[in-house]
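Methods — Computational structure assignment.
A single polypeptide chain was analysed. Its primary sequence is given first, followed by the predicted tertiary structure written as structure tokens.
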Amino acid sequence: MKILIVDDSPDSQLLIKSILNYAGYKDLLTANSALEAFRQLGMDNLASASTDIDLILMDVVMPEMDGIEACRLIKSFEYLRDIPIIIVTATAKDLQMAFAAGATDYITKPLNKVELLARVSSALRLKREIDNRKAREQELMKLTQQLEELNQILQRLSSSDGLTGVANRRHFDLVLKQEWRRAIRDATPLSLILIDVDFFKAYNDTYGHQMGDDCLKRVANSLKGVLKRPTDLIARYGGEEFVALLPKTDTDGAAALAEGMRAGIEALGIAHARSQVTDRVTISLGVATVVPNRDSSFADLVAEADHALYQAKQEGRNRVKSSSSIVMQDKSLVNEATLCKLSN
């Protein structure tokens, strides 16, 4: 381990080096003043400040700056605070100030060989323990960071649809509840779009499930591209159905986005020979909007969007239909939507 001896007396430097060399300490540096010690510690170049010095033996009485003030300055640098400093002094009156300045230990002059070696050994052992502790802390921080990254990956996987990469039904249900509460609190509109790929069973039967999976991936990516706000959500609702949740969006805004989604899917030009609408893959969309209150339920919003989607299919598919009920105080529409879904 590397030891820096700071003393303006060549004789004192030589004596300390001789004792330490004899005891097996070979990596020894010397400085004739505090300023020279600062340079060896890298304090004159803070942009790349670092040091591999493990222990400092600091004489108290030196020209320009005494050892106690030098100790105080060294300990003011974060990267030097763990280096033990042993004060070398001829009188005990300096000890209180030395320890207040950050000194770890002291030895008195004239030097006693046994005492010097014992205190050096103790200080270096302390430095090793500090270094080992910091290494363990860094390893723990690294492991903690890796664990956090893995947790984030797991969180993304648990909230994403494995095929299309958009949010899954579980994540949609969670976000819907959160946005519903926020919309009640802020008295803002919440819109929902239910989306169904037209005649998708016929597509699968014609082109196979692998092509069907590829089709759903392209559809999901196109739908996701239409949404621009981070608060908007697109999710796979089940099978060939998708859903878009649009906070703070009124009926006109939601209908415009839905039309953009419809046109975007049609523009993909995915061939669909058995579609009863056209020769390419298309989608039907149902839009519903609500300004919720504490007496309403988000299940009503979903049911109303489902009713609008049913109407879009009944009227020929490849189109957008918006619900006529905005505040959803009329439950008859919900009941009608439920009956339609059961009979479909």
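Note: Residues 326-344 have pLDDT under 50 and may be disordered.
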